[in-house]
Amino acid sequence: MPWKRIVVHEIKEMEVPDFLLMVVSQFEAQKQIGDPGVDWVEGIAFIRGDFPDTPEVIREKLNGILHYGMVSFTRTSFEERKKVLFNGRDRFVRLMKGDKNPDFINLCKFLGGFKSREVSTAAIATTPDV
Checking CA distances to 6, which of 41, 57, 65, 120 falls within 20 to 30 Å? Predict the structure, then answer.
């Protein structure tokens, strides 16, 4: 059953090589074996960072609301394995089709229309103190 709502707290769009390097470097840092995998739907490859299951997060989940702390993504065509040079050797990142998951489909539709935004210094200067 799809979530009622998914809240994404931070979004980071990356160029394909940078995204692949980030995925491989995180995988290597965790001392995992094999090739890392990322989800892919309709031209978007992405990884999610979930919030830890605190009592508040679990309460939200029970109410049908899922929080992603961060989603990093890149726009790329589908290949089962994408190659990237990491520390002088070829590494591969597996793309896993998520086109049967309605939550992933909706997330990727949102990400497909996402435009990176930079906060201007004027906006910072005029923001009232909280």
Answer: 120
> Helices in the chain by DSSP H: which ranges?
16-29, 55-62, 102-112, 121-126
Q: Domain tally for the chain?
A: 1
φ, ψ of residue 6 to 5 degrees: the values are -120, 125
Q: Contact 71/8 with Cβ under 8 angstroms?
A: yes
Which pair of tokens denotes residue 103? 């939550």
93 close to 36: Cβ distance less than 8 angstroms: yes
Amino acid at 104: F
pLDDT at 119 over 70: no
pTM above 0.70, yes or no: yes
DSSP character at residue 49: E
Q: Kindly state the tokens that stand for 72.
A: 């990093």
Calpha distance 35→31 (Å, rounded): 11
Q: Which structural domain range is residue 41 located in?
A: 5-126
DSSP 112: H
